[in-house]
Amino acid sequence: MYADFLSKKLSDAGADEGCMLNVTVAGKTYKGVLMPHHEFSGQDIIILKMKSGYNIGIRLDESSQIEVVSRPVERVKPETAEETKKGLKTIVLIGTGGTIASYVDYRTGAVHPALSTSDMINAVPEIKEIANIKANVLFSIFSENMTVPHWQQLAKAIADELNNGADAVIVPHGTDTMGYTAAAVAFMLGDVSKPVIFVGAQRSSDRPSSDASSNLMAAARFCVNGNRAGVFVVMHDGSGDDVFAVHNGTRVRKMHTSRRDAFKSINVPPVALVDRAGKITFNCDGRPVSKDRVEVRSDMCQDVVLLQFYPGMDPVLFRDIFMKSKGVVISGSGLGHVNSNMVPLIKEAVDNGTIVVITSQCLNGRTNLNVYNTGRDMLNAGAITVMDMLPETAYAKLMWALANTKSTEAAKGVMKTPLAGEMSDRRVML
Amino acid sequence: MYADFLSKKLSDAGADEGCMLNVTVAGKTYKGVLMPHHEFSGQDIIILKMKSGYNIGIRLDESSQIEVVSRPVERVKPETAEETKKGLKTIVLIGTGGTIASYVDYRTGAVHPALSTSDMINAVPEIKEIANIKANVLFSIFSENMTVPHWQQLAKAIADELNNGADAVIVPHGTDTMGYTAAAVAFMLGDVSKPVIFVGAQRSSDRPSSDASSNLMAAARFCVNGNRAGVFVVMHDGSGDDVFAVHNGTRVRKMHTSRRDAFKSINVPPVALVDRAGKITFNCDGRPVSKDRVEVRSDMCQDVVLLQFYPGMDPVLFRDIFMKSKGVVISGSGLGHVNSNMVPLIKEAVDNGTIVVITSQCLNGRTNLNVYNTGRDMLNAGAITVMDMLPETAYAKLMWALANTKSTEAAKGVMKTPLAGEMSDRRVML
Fold first, then answer.
1. Contacts of B395 in chain A (CB under 8 A)
2. More confidently predicted of A251 and B79
3. Which residues of A are part of the catalytic machinery?
4. Do A147 and B312 touch (CB under 8 A)?
5. A262 with A174: CB under 8 angstroms?
6. What ipTM was estimated for this complex?
7. How many structural domains does chain A have?
8. Active-site residues of B: which are they?
9. Residue-wise pLDDT tens digits, B98-136
10. Are strands A65-70 and A20-25 parallel, antiparallel or unpaired?
């Protein structure tokens, strides 16, 4: 609900949603398309979609002026029944929550999850010009609260949509753990035959410089024109505003707390770049889209932990965790090391049937336990390395490998076999 | 010891250490200065220092040819008594081990720690032209085995040398945990009045393309001409070979397992860049060198752990660690989050007197627990944030803060106060 003064101003100007407006506040004029009002936004705030694609929130007062510049050829009609246009591909949005589906309450500053994914679509009207969009909300949580059951439910929902006619699925997701979820879903969906794209936002939709709409649009363009099957993450690339990166879901990591280009492909280039006009530039080969049925293997062993090695790490303190877990992923130092005191604990855990997987806290580069004595001791203790796999991806994969094999040795074999582009066979050149 | 055939070839050619040689093997000729032979190197290997500053190891056979191109004006004299030149500053090297002080055994491929830091100096004869160099080996371990007592011993040794006339201290150190040690020593030495520089190598001294000599030389140049007090890390900058980065010891992280430019300043630019000619370009202000006595406060509380949050992290599994620790550093997701299940454990630990410090696994950017409900719940539970401090630096600082204050509240205050450039006051712009 807008404040009375603002409702009147909008009404007097004939300013409906979808109209291009000039809004003048304190001597400054903003030009943009009027977006739907969200119930959590302040009553004196209107949201304008700027030419750049960003939405900005503007606080108006009694002295502000609103002028209609033009009306949309086709009005934005929130909450109308979904229209299906022939010849367009069908993309299903499966909402999970997160900033991309959030609105700031300008009165308190708090961020609320959105109530409806259709709100999100209505904020990006141009997405309907390139695809038939269906949306459903699977859950609405901040991504730090995603758990293995959420991943499983999501993977099944994605497979169902793809097997029921969707040409692609886009998953709006909180950015905090989007990399973990993308990796987990990539292993669960295996050789998925169509694009599955995770997309987030670092600024909520009704904030100045929100990246929600532009990331969503870039993801949709890649779904429609990319002809590339797999699980991907699409977010801003670089600090500019014109290029979006398509990352392999098993190779991507959130590398900044707040920048719009926080997501980076690690150890590989992004799969592709998409510019604002929709032009796609691929950096690597991959699987084309096919009509194959999507099989989902969503079993996961939840007795897996992820630990960062640090100097002075005490095996006594961590013994219980090692002994109670079926899998331990360690992000070791440098080439993948732990201190010598930890090596007997690794051996004890391995002898107890635990799989200990070594990755590197350097994130970039590959592990190699054959260079130094510490590393060879770790190998002798039974630790395994996984080339240049990210610690977070190894965590998701180890859960999957333990649940989808019949023996510890088979699970180790799975860990060492690339399944979803998560590691490279290329030997390290020292 | 060289193999007999190789000793004879060197002797016949009159090729002493320090001579510029042309060495022809299998039709290819290498030009460089003959370096001392290390006992761990293969008997058929000679080490040449190339014009680029790199040392390469060349395996010779009976058919290889050695020709002396020129002799050094001043011969390299390994193991002679240290000479003191008037007018030059004094740099003390305090050896700790690591790749920079290591030699590969070409027979087995294993890397051995060096026996003597003077070996290292003798491999960089030009360092003696810019400073009087003294060297002692404090210990010789791989850095993954560094512990808090090693940090303490090292900080005291550095302070002793600086208070006994050294103008600077260079600490050759294994790269695996060099960032952690530099941060810990930075807090222990406080407002140290002279340069203390950690320097490592990603390739051992007798390997092709070793960066040991060039990193050491850049560190020495910064000591002599930088007029900047503090604790720094000097390593290659970028993939080229001409520029070296001087990092603040509390802001640096090993970000690649094997590249020579693995060390990156995070959230700040490097303090300075040093080119091969010794030209120093500063990126920020800092304290000039002074004659103040160096005070060392090396007390550390070792009951501190560093944990990475991950989706599904189980408070039951980690309860013991939280309750047994006086300090817990969590690298949370995004702005510093954990899942909602972990929040009661944070509260229980804080109520028990534990300090829980939140950093971000994104590494770049700053934490902010005021944006989302999860964050506010964490703050209400008693967790504290430390702006843009690295998780590893927070781990070292929390040990120091707990040992050098009289109350938990005072230690929290120390954590939130920049002491050694480890965090920025600037507010995040969302």
1. 310
2. A251
3. 99, 175-176, 254
4. yes
5. no
6. 0.82
7. 3
8. 99, 175-176, 254
9. 766 665 544 444 555 554 666 667 767 788 899 999 988
10. antiparallel
